């Protein structure tokens, strides 16, 4: 059974008097354990599709089922709760709180749970160790490199043990060496820890780390490619 299933998905935005059709009838299945790279020219609808899969936006019409749940039918409050339990997000610019340590940044999603302070601290330490920053728990973002800040962001994304990781240009602000380290980390999370990952990227080299590549053009899926294991 697919983890993510999209059926006849449409998204239209109203910009003043004009309607802008961003996605047109998307049909897509993403299996558990997939690592999907989503590519396409600027304005093709990549980030819109990613936001719909992650429950950050709602479709104009069509169905979105994730883990057996129809998230297109959820209210804003239900979506917020669902995201906190099932999805981890990694963005291009890290979105870390500058006044908090790495550990405290990673703990943030756990403040929405029933966990006590000691368990939140422990879980954050485990997540930071998993991404190779076990020695940087007390460092603030300005004391870390860009690649290290993105590792903190990934630790924050996985600390709640979500089923699905949503990554929007996760290497777009990094030099090549740091980018490759982040991509190898995502690949490890996929292959060794079973995380299903959907990643928007403009970089063909980044897409090579994924198991599948999907191409969007003008709001339509135009090509799918699967890489050999």
UniProtKB/TrEMBL annotation:
Pfam families, A to Z: ABC_tran
UniProt cross-references to Gene3D superfamilies, sorted A to Z: P-loop containing nucleotide triphosphate hydrolases (3.40.50.300)
Stored InterPro entries: AAA+_ATPase (IPR003593), ABC_transporter-like_ATP-bd (IPR003439), ABC_transporter-like_CS (IPR017871), ABC_transpr_LolD-like (IPR015854), MacB-like_ATP-bd (IPR017911), P-loop_NTPase (IPR027417)
UniProt superkingdom: Bacteria
Keywords, ordered alphabetically: ATP-binding, Nucleotide-binding, Transport
Alphabetized PROSITE patterns for the sequence: ABC_TRANSPORTER_1, ABC_TRANSPORTER_2
GO cellular component labels: plasma membrane; transmembrane transporter complex
Domain ABC transporter: 4-229
GO molecular function: ATP binding; ATP hydrolysis activity; transmembrane transporter activity
Similarity-based family: Belongs to the ABC transporter superfamily. Macrolide exporter (TC 3.A.1.122) family.
Protein known as: Putative ABC transport system ATP-binding protein
The organism's taxonomic lineage, starting at the top: Bacteria, Pseudomonadati, Pseudomonadota, Gammaproteobacteria, Lysobacterales
């Amino acid at each position: 059974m697919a983890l993510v299933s999209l059926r006849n998905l449409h998204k239209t935005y109203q910009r003043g008097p004009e309607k802008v059709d961003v996605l047109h009838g998307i049909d897509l299945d993403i299996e558990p354990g997939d690592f999907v790279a989503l590519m396409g020219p600027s304005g093709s609808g990549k980030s819109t599709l990613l936001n719909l899969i992650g429950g950050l936006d709602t479709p104009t019409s069509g169905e979105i089922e994730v883990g057996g749940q129809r998230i297109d039918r959820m209210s804003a409050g239900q979506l917020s709760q669902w995201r906190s339990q099932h999805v981890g997000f990694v963005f291009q610019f890290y979105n870390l709180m500058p006044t908090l340590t790495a550990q405290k940044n990673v703990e943030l999603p756990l403040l929405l749970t029933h966990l006590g302070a000691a368990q939140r601290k422990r879980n954050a330490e485990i997540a930071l160790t998993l991404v190779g920053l076990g020695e940087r728990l007390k460092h603030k973002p300005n004391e870390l490199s860009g690649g290290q800040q993105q590792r903190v962001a990934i630790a924050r994304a996985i600390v709640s043990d979500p089923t699905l990781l949503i990554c929007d240009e996760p290497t777009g602000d990094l030099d090549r060496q740091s980018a490759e380290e982040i991509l190898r980390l995502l690949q490890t999370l996929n292959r060794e820890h079973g995380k299903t990952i959907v990643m928007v990227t403009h970089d063909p080299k980044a897409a090579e780390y994924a198991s599948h590549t999907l191409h969007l053009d003008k709001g339509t899926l135009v090509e799918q490619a699967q890489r050999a294991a």
